[in-house]
Structures are given as C-alpha cells and as structure tokens.
Amino acid sequence: MKLKIKRLHPDATIPSPATEGASGLDLYACLPDGELLLSRDPVRVPAGVALEFPSGYDVQVRPRSGLSLKGVGVAFGTIDSDYRGEVLVTMWVFGSRTEHRVQHGDRIAQLVVTPLARLPVVEVEELAPSARGEGSHGSTGT
Questions:
Q1: For residue 125, is it within any domain?
Q2: pLDDT tens digits for 104-138?
Q3: φ, ψ (nearest 5 deg) of residue 27
Q4: Three-state SS sequence of 40-90
Q5: Rounded distance between C-alpha atoms, residue 16 and residue 103, angstroms
Q6: Is the pTM of this model over 0.85?
Q7: Closest CA to 101 of 87, 113, 91
Q8: Does 138 reside within a domain?
Q9: Is the CB of residue 40 less than 8 Å from the CB of residue 73?
C-alpha cells in the first residue's frame, strides 16, 4: 500500500514529514506566480499535487498548530480515495489578525493518513442509553 503523489506543477513541493516522529505530512502552498493574501473570508490555497491511495484509508487535511497560534485557520477536510484533483486547503484569518500573507512553498497544513472503518448503516427505533445521554456541547464540563 502506498500514498501516490502526482506533482501537478513543476514548482510544487511533495508533502513530507517534518520529523521522523511526525504523524502528518507537511503540505505546501503552490503559488509559483506570487503570493496570496488571506483575510477573514475563506479562500482555497492550491498545493499543486494530487493523490492516489487505496480504498479503506482516510486522508485528512489538518491545521498546523503553529499557524493556528498565529490566528491563521485551516478547515479540517477529508480527501476521498476516488478523488484525483488538486489538493486545495481552505484558509482564513481569525482573532485579532486581519490578514496573513501565504507565499509559494509555505507549509500551510498537514496530511494525515489513517485506516477507515466501514460499518454497516442500520436504522433502528431506539438507541441504547448511556451515562451522557443527549447532553450536547459543554455537557461534560468546561
């Protein structure tokens, strides 16, 4: 089993782990003609690569903690095993930040590959009770 990566632009950077212990592969912006200015409105940032991986695996686009700390948001996303288009990362700024400049080659997100559990979907009349019950957001404490 392999994660196959196709470079869609000659200047694209192939995703790679930053350290031997990293759980994700760093994903890089592919903006060879310049840069992109992020604002509070979400924008899709191209990575310049496409993926192929076997059915039964889940590839997720996840934020980088260093960018999050700086007020740069990345939408958590899932790449389906039958998608062959360019990987795009939805980004924006938040908090007191009003803009952030993304340049070609910047690390913008990470890819995490995990096995995918496929469970049969069964409609039922009732669900088994649990200690939490129907408690929603914040119901288990702060």
A1: no
A2: 999 999 999 999 998 999 999 999 999 888 877 66
A3: -110, 135
A4: CCCEEEEEEEEEECCCCEEEEEECCHHHHHCCEEECCEEECCCCCCEEEEE
A5: 18
A6: yes
A7: 91
A8: no
A9: no
**Residue 133 is assigned to a structural domain of this protein:** no
- How many beta carbons lie within 10 A of that of residue 51, not counting itself? 21
pLDDT tens digits, residue range 49-97?
999 999 999 999 999 999 999 999 999 999 999 999 999 999 999 999 9
Q: Which residues, other chains included, contact 81 with Cβ-Cβ below 8 Å and sequence gap of 6+? A: 53, 54, 55, 56, 57, 59
* Residue 67: CA count within 13 A, CB half-sphere: 23
Domain encompassing residue 13: 4-17+24-115
Q: What is the CATH number of the domain that holds 71?
A: 2.70.40.10
Residues 6+ apart with CB under 8 A from 36: 29, 43, 45, 101, 102
User: Does residue 102 belong to any structural domain of this protein?
Assistant: yes
Number of domains in the chain: 1
